[in-house]
Write a structure and sequence with these properties.
Elements lengths: L7 H18 L21 H13 L1 H8 L2 H4 L4 H5 L8 E4 L2 E4 L4 H4 L4 H8 L13 H9 L10 H11 L44 H5 L2 H4 L9 H7 L1 H8 L23 H5 L18 E2 L6 E2 L2 H5 L7 H12 L5 H35 L11 H22 L3 H33 L3 H15 L5 H4 L4 H22 L1
Antiparallel strand pairs: 1-2, 3-4
Helix pairs in contact: 2-3, 8-9, 12-13, 17-18, 17-19, 17-20, 18-19, 19-20
């Protein structure tokens, strides 16, 4: 008997048919009542997509090659299936006799990937475009930039919006506004009313699982002085082990379950999105996060929703799910101790520096000792650096086990910024106020600072430490010097 071997492409098609058949008979489970799964394997590529492919093979060979390596190709999903548009779509254009849209939005992707889009739409990623109007955007539009690029700031167009997303505009002639496109920002606001860009993580046109699972996929946005998650990950034991043993990570596994398909290290996707033996894949990246480390003062991730009466998954349940990921490799006691360490760092930052710093800024504003314009006074820059840069680095370092980011890139710089810059600048503002006759305002503001600096954690700065504390530290310093000198002989 002669056995006919299947080519890799045919294997892909057979596997797709099998998985689709299974999915069609599984009960629907999702966070937000997704549409029923409508995708079915196509027996052959549509005539429309054949025409597209024949032309783009010559004009855009790299796009054609990337699509040819994709699972879409194996399922006979081509250009037209993704780019087709109704004539009345806001961004529809006539192209070679077809109505198409350049932008493939989450709404388009949801025709086949409904659960993924529903989960993404509930995530913080989907809200990233709401940066418009924030302090960050004010910096890029006004302080750093000027409204010289068709009424927009090039700093915002090329910077903030490329991660957070732009509101894509269609010009009167049907072209996409160059101030808003091209753009793959994660919270992009699309002409069809949908929010997000799947291509922020799943680079077109191959949509490789391997690419999306690697930490570099997140590094386009999650790096740099204010949110260095990629650099933090690379410093951590997780990152070190990933790069040392990437060949053992089984990155192209269809299910990619930690503890089954790989165990060398987690990636960003492992912890925040991917499946465990008990948890399904999720496209809500905050679904396992218990603290929000973004604002000036950290709070539990569900705090705002609870305050507004909105039903949401509790921070305790989110932490339980993250611990489930951790337990694929670590013992319960180790995980519990890690979270105690992490929580203690966030609370230290909050209580010693963030809440005091915010109180200082609020009293200056309340007493009208600052102008109404943001960033026109030195203390406003100092405060922004403290929480937006150094404070975030310290918190992210603790969350992802990168000690250098906790210490030298984090709390050390937070402390230096607070004691050596913010407090003296605050005092200088009060002295000027007194000189200008605003003595009552200065007195009320000074009372806020005095109350802060009289707390035990600031006693070293004011010289009010108890003698027994100073004595114990002096003994420890002397012992260290003795060891150092003896070791150097």
């Amino acid at each position: 008997m002669k056995i006919k071997l299947l080519t890799p492409a045919r294997w892909s098609q057979h596997l797709f048919v099998l998985l689709t058949a299974i999915l069609l008979f599984l009960p629907a489970t999702s966070f937000a009542e997704p549409k029923a799964l409508v995708m079915k394997p196509f027996k052959q590529l549509s005539q429309e997509s054949k025409e597209c492919a024949a032309c783009h093979k010559e004009k855009n060979p790299s796009i054609y090659a990337q699509w040819g390596r994709s699972k879409h190709y194996g399922a006979n999903v081509g250009c037209y299936e993704c780019h087709q548009a109704s004539p009345d779509d806001p961004d529809a254009i006539k192209h070679e006799g077809f109505n198409i849209a350049v932008i493939v939005s989450p709404k388009d992707c949801s025709a086949c990937h409904s659960q993924e889009v529903a989960e993404f739409s509930a995530s913080h990623h989907a809200k990233a475009g709401q940066i418009l109007g924030s302090l960050d955007n004010f910096l890029a539009e006004v302080v750093e930039g000027a409204l010289t690029f068709h009424g927009k700031s090039s700093a915002a167009v090329n910077g903030c919006w490329q991660c957070h997303g732009s509101e894509v505009k269609v010009l009167e002639n049907g072209d996409l506004d160059p101030t808003t496109w091209p753009n793959t920002g994660i919270g992009r606001i699309n002409p069809d009313g949908s929010v997000g860009a799947c291509t922020a993580c799943h680079q077109r046109h191959e949509f490789s699982m391997v690419q999306a699972r690697r930490p570099e996929a997140c590094g386009k946005c999650h790096l740099g002085p204010d949110h260095p998650q990629k650099e933090v990950y690379e410093e951590s034991k997780h990152g070190i082990n990933f790069f040392a043993h990437v060949d053992k990570m089984n990155m192209d596994s269809a299910k990619w379950v930690v503890g089954e398909d790989y165990d060398a290290a987690p990636t960003c996707a492992t912890c925040h999105m991917s499946a465990t033996r008990e948890l399904p894949v999720t496209h809500d990246v905050g679904n396992r996060i218990s603290w929000t480390l973004r604002p000036a003062i950290s709070e539990k991730i569900d705090a705002k929703d609870k305050a507004s009466g909105k039903e949401t998954k509790s921070w305790q349940d989110r932490r339980t799910d993250m611990k489930n990921v951790c337990q694929s490799c670590h013992t319960k006691s180790m995980i519990d101790n890690f979270y105690q360490q992490f929580d203690s760092l966030v609370e230290l930052y909050n209580d010693k520096f963030a809440r005091p710093g915010k109180a200082m800024m609020e009293v200056l504003q309340k007493e009208k000792l600052l102008t109404d314009t943001e960033f026109d006074e030195e203390i406003e820059w100092t405060w922004f650096y403290l929480w937006h840069h150094e404070g975030r680095r310290a918190r992210h370092g603790a969350a992802m086990q990168a000690p250098d980011y906790v210490q030298w890139h984090g709390m050390y710089e937070v402390a230096e910024r607070f004691y050596i810059e913010m407090v003296p600048q605050f005092m200088e503002i009060l002295e000027k106020a007194e000189h200008d006759g605003k003595t009552d305002s200065a007195t009320r503001a000074r009372a806020v600072l005095d109350e802060i600096l009289n707390r035990p954690e600031h006693a070293w700065f004011t010289g009010n430490e108890p003698e027994n504390v100073k004595k114990a530290r002096k003994e420890a310093q002397d012992a260290f010097k003795d060891r150092y000198l003896n070791d150097s002989k």
